[in-house]
Amino acid sequence: MSFTEDFKQSILKINEETFLDSSLQAFNFQYKNCGVYNRYCNYLNINPDSIINLEDIPFLPIQFFKNHAIKSGSWSEEKIFKSSGTTATGRSQHFIKDLDHYHDTAKVAIEEIIGDLSEYQIIAILPSYQEQGDSSLISMVDHFIKYASEGSGYYLRNNDLASVLESSRQKLVIGVSYALLDIASSGIKAKNAIIMETGGMKGRRKEMTREELHNELCDGFSVDEIWSEYGMTELQSQSYGTSGKFKFPAWAKCLIRDINDPFSYLSHSKTGGINVIDLANIDSCCFIETKDLGRLNDDYFEVLGRFDNSDIRGCNLMI
To answer: Which residues neighbour 72 within 8 Å (Cβ) at sequence distance 6 or greater?
Structure first.
């Protein structure tokens, strides 16, 4: 069995005690086998023997996914995920070697939050993502629907949603922000439902803060809270949370870098740039420097916005 196949099988067993060792294994493998990452590390004059802590690991700027094929090793991709393309600066591409690996870890991550998918009717309201056809979010939801209860699927905004949402069945409603707002403002209530927004106005509505969005959705759907998904094309793992407070599964972690010095890190409760270690990214790059702003707390991290002059991401960031 190859290193990557063995590593993938071990991911679901990773815990706080083994995370550092697994991360160092991933770094050493990708330093040797990911050409783009290797060149970036060498540009920084990184000595791989000096990497002994998480904070020592170089994080690849997320922009590299726009103009490079980020692969660890030589292989033919099974799928290419592309970002939503809401800006004119180009779309990120994530080359996926093993689609089953992406789906399997995504299912484990969401079931840690909400329980068994088979207990839910999934109502997916993602029109703009469906139009593109190369979205990681759509691929993930497609997989979830396979395990969900009868009647799960994609719904247009005015396609029998009233009877579906107001039924007594347990539901998971996954939707892009502007579409959820349209439904919430139409007077349709949601009974026995988890409402989960994936962000993104797609130019259909003015941007608003997450607090404003969630308040409108709570009022419109008559629910007590709104869940959010924090994910992106360049990552294979997702985090979930309410009120902007997110938690990754055990094989992924958020670090907060200093805005003025990207190679130093901030203590808890201080705002900086979000770096993500996603060990599910073993076929590409596990160490991603995002353009998102956040803050780390004891058992969760907050997503606060975007860096000035950076692209507005399609997945769940409202300034």
So the answer is: 4, 29, 30, 33, 34, 37, 282, 283, 284, 285
What is the tally of helices (H) and strands (E) in the chain? Answer: 10, 14
- Global pTM value: 0.92
Nearest CA to 169 out of 227, 119, 226, 220 is that of: 119
| pLDDT at position 311 over 70 | no
Q: How many residues does the chain have?
A: 319
Backbone angles phi, psi at 287, to 5 degrees: -125, 100
83-103: per-residue pLDDT in tens?
A: 986 555 689 999 999 999 999
Torsion over CA: 173, 174, 179, 180 (sign) = positive
* Token pair of 120 as six digits: 């839910």
The number of beta carbons lying within 10 Å of the beta carbon of residue 33 is 17
β-pair type (121-125, 287-296): unpaired
CB 250 within 8 A of CB 209: no
Instruction: Determine the Cα–Cα distance for residues 229 and 294; give it in Å rounded to an integer.
Output: 15
